């Protein structure tokens, strides 16, 4: 059933977009069809099930609404390019959600902040993780300990429900996923020890971890970021060193650091059982992932499970904050209209998108 709060979520996520877009969007969930039927008497159920792409006049209006709703401005010929990408994505969304509605997919995709990027631009701008080279585990006993700890691990666990509620971030035009995932993983450790929510500076990691081999907004690896923190002398708070989505000179001030990394480790590769144990016992963990498919770019809700999301390459980093019986719960940094309030549920058990290839945690 669609409750009132669901509706708020829907209308919020659609923002100012017109009813015309609802004609397309509403088609993917029967409860939404019913809802909009009630709310907008002009819309009939038949309308909702047509799944037609809008006419060109409708498209002009939708594009205008998209720009307004997502606060987009384009200069010169960029507008035409972005619009073309957006129209292609709109087409994909209609087709995918039609199939999802028939039960062929376990998830829906939708218009979001990234839906005006074509595949090439998306890959160039948004997914900039460089692969961490995997050395032998520094601390092999960690694995041994894990399996000792493996008893009494609950079937489902979600750090958000334990109080780890964090703002929705948007990395914008900066390849800083590595910085957000490590900053959030350390924040989670502070939370676990003190029950306090103290956002940490991803921007410090962007500006300063170049000394450990990262490339600022041009990307970086989880390993280099953790190596930087090994010798940085601390990490500052988000408030003292806020995110600006641009790389600048390193402004780190050791006197204002509030936390030090005391150790870190990498989980055994491609081992989803170890992930489950680590999440429950240690806390939210940073993980690399393959974010290449356009279904990932446009992910909206449900358990993401694209068979074309190969485990053989990774190019993005997220924070795993929990798990259900069938999914990992991942926090992303692509604004509040990507995924389920900025989170993704990803099918467990098949190393989907290489989620278990490189998973790291730090201890503070
Ligand atoms: C919209 O974008 C402009 C220019 O990028 C920016 O100055 C403004 O703060 C943005 N407004 C909102 C509500 O995000
Ligand atoms: C972090 O470690 C450095 C070097 O050992 C030390 O100088 C600094 O005071 C520590 N900072 C915090 C916040 O514990």
Automatic annotation (TrEMBL):
UniProt xrefs under InterPro entries: Papain-like_cys_pep_sf, Pept_cys_AS, Peptidase_C1A, Peptidase_C1A_C, Peptidase_C1A_papain-like, Prot_inhib_I29
Domain annotation Cathepsin propeptide inhibitor: ranges: 63-122
Record-linked SUPFAM superfamilies: Cysteine proteinases
GO BP annotations, alphabetical order: proteolysis
Listed PROSITE patterns: THIOL_PROTEASE_CYS
GO terms of molecular function: cysteine-type peptidase activity
Keywords: Disulfide bond, Hydrolase, Protease, Thiol protease, Zymogen
Pfam family name, one: Inhibitor_I29
Domain of life (superkingdom): Eukaryota
Family membership: Belongs to the peptidase C1 family.
Name of the protein described by the UniProt record: Peptidase C1A papain C-terminal domain-containing protein
Originating organism: Photinus pyralis
């Amino acid at each position: 059933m669609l409750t009132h709060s669901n509706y708020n979520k829907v209308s919020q996520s659609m923002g100012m977009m017109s009813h015309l877009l609802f004609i397309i969007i509403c088609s993917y969930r029967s409860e939404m069809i019913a809802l909009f039927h009630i709310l907008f008497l002009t819309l009939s159920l038949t309308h909702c099930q047509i799944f037609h792409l809008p006419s060109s006049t409708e498209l002009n209006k939708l594009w205008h609404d998209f720009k307004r709703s997502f606060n987009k401005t384009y200069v010169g010929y960029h507008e035409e390019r972005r619009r073309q990408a957006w129209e292609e994505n709109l087409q994909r969304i209609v087709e995918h959600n039609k199939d999802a509605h028939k039960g062929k997919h376990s998830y829906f995709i939708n218009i979001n902040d990234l839906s005006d990027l074509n595949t090439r631009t998306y890959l160039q701008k948004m997914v900039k993780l460089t692969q961490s080279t995997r050395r032998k585990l520094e601390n092999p006993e960690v694995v041994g300990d894990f399996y000792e700890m493996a008893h009494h691990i609950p079937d489902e666990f979600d750090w958000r429900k334990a109080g780890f509620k964090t703002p929705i971030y948007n990395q914008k035009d900066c390849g800083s996923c590595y910085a957000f995932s490590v900053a959030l993983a350390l924040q989670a450790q502070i939370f676990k020890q003190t029950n306090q929510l103290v956002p940490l500076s991803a921007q410090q990691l962007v500006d300063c971890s170049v000394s450990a081999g990262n490339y600022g907004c041009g990307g970086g690896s989880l390993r280099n970021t953790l190596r930087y923190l090994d010798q940085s002398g601390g990490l500052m708070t988000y408030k003292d060193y806020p995110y600006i989505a641009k790389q600048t000179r390193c402004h780190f001030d050791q006197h204002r650091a509030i936390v030090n990394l005391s150790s870190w480790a990498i989980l055994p590769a491609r081992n989803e059982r170890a992930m489950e144990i680590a999440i429950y016992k240690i806390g939210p963990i940073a993980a690399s992932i393959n974010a290449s498919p356009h279904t990932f770019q446009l992910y909206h809700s449900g358990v993401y499970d694209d068979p074309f999301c190969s485990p053989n390459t990774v190019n993005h980093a997220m924070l795993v904050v929990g798990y259900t019986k069938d999914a990992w719960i991942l926090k992303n940094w692509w604004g509040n209209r990507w995924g389920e309030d900025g989170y993704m549920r990803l099918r467990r058990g098949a190393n989907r998108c290489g989620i278990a290839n490189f998973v790291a945690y730090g201890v503070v």
